[in-house]
Amino acid sequence: MTRPTRPLSPHLGIYKWQLHMAMSILHRSTGVFLGLGLLAMAWWLMSIAQGPDAYSEFITYASSLFGRLVLFGFTYSLIYHFLNGLRHLLWDTGRGLDVESVRKSGMLTMLLSVLLTVAVWVYGYSVIGKF
Amino acid sequence: MRTDLGKVRGLGSAKGGTSHWWAQRVTAIGLVPLTVWFIVSLAALTGADHPTMVAWISNPFVTVLLSLFIISGFYHLKLGGQVIIEDYVHQDGVKLVSLLLLKFATLAVGLASFVALLKISFGS
């Protein structure tokens, strides 16, 4: 294909950041990060399969401050990707595509993803009696 | 001479039609209940020791649900990762190598998770 010499459509840099753009790229980023999450899940399962020693080594890493930070990131990413994925499935049916609905479902997703992540961690800490 | 429209009609230039798009939706829909179950279960298992984990995973329902989560999860990752590579990597050689690496990595790590799961549930 020959490259047209006329000006091309404006690219990323020219747009003002808006919610739907940020949420779209966040869906991708969380998806990539969840790839690392599946890698961690493989490590978790492998450690259990290897026995108590390997598992307690995994727990040492996972329960460190850095480990918990990463796990918190996985939790948020999974919940956000899940909720925003539901929006995508809704859009696939042709519903909720007008500007106002997209803005509303976007705001709701942002709010719920944070609330649910915190709820999961509060629940987790309450299980071990630290909350 | 074929027009651009002619090339993409039918199954399109990649000859895959909507199969990739559809598989991404199918795995996504399957992952909806599985993800809810996964998050709630793991949160409830916070701080669990090795015997507790083994007992939980060995429950047949858990083994089946975890298998489904692993299979659809890694397949969904392969499909999503492929779209990202195709969107951002434009140099043919680099694109081909990236796609192959993604395919091999998701298959290998997915299989590792699945084998570990079976080993735990059936005992070692």
Task: List strands and helices in order, with pairings.
The complex is a heterodimer of chains A (131) and B (124).
Chain A: H1 19-50, H2 52-63, H3 65-92, H4 99-127
Chain B: H1 4-8, H2 19-44, H3 50-58, H4 60-88, H5 92-122
Helix pairs in contact in B: 2-4, 3-5, 4-5
What does this structure look like?
The complex is a heterodimer of chains A (131) and B (124). With 131 residues, chain A is mostly helical. Chain A is built from four helices and no strands. Chain A has one domain (19-127): 3 helical TM bundles of succinate and fumarate reductases, CATH 1.20.1300. Chain B is mainly α and 124 residues long. Chain B has a single domain, classed as Fumarate reductase/succinate dehydrogenase, transmembrane subunit (3 helical TM bundles of succinate and fumarate reductases). Chain B contains five helices and no strands.
Biggest β-sheet of chain B, characterized?
A: none
The fraction of residues assigned to DSSP E strands of chain B is under 5%
In the CATH scheme, the class of chain A would be Mainly Alpha
Global structural class of chain A: mainly alpha
Shape of chain B: elongated
Largest sheet of chain A: none
Known CATH architecture of chain B? Up-down Bundle
Biggest interface between chains: A-B, 33 and 34 residues
* CATH-defined superfamily of chain A: Fumarate reductase/succinate dehydrogenase, transmembrane subunit
Q: Characterize the overall form of chain A.
A: elongated
Count of folded domains of chain A: 1
Count of separate DSSP helical elements of chain A = 4
State Rg of chain A: 20 Å
**Considering DSSP H and I runs of 4 or more, what fraction of the residues of chain B is helical?**
over 70%
From the helix content, strand content and strand pairing of chain B, which structural class follows?
Answer: mainly alpha
Q: How do the helices and strands follow one another from N- to C-terminus of chain A?
A: HHHH
Mean of residue pLDDT of chain A? Answer: 94
Radius of gyration of chain B: 19 Å
In whole angstroms, the N-to-C terminal distance of chain B is 63 Å
Strand residue percentage of chain A: under 5%
**Assembly category:** heterodimer
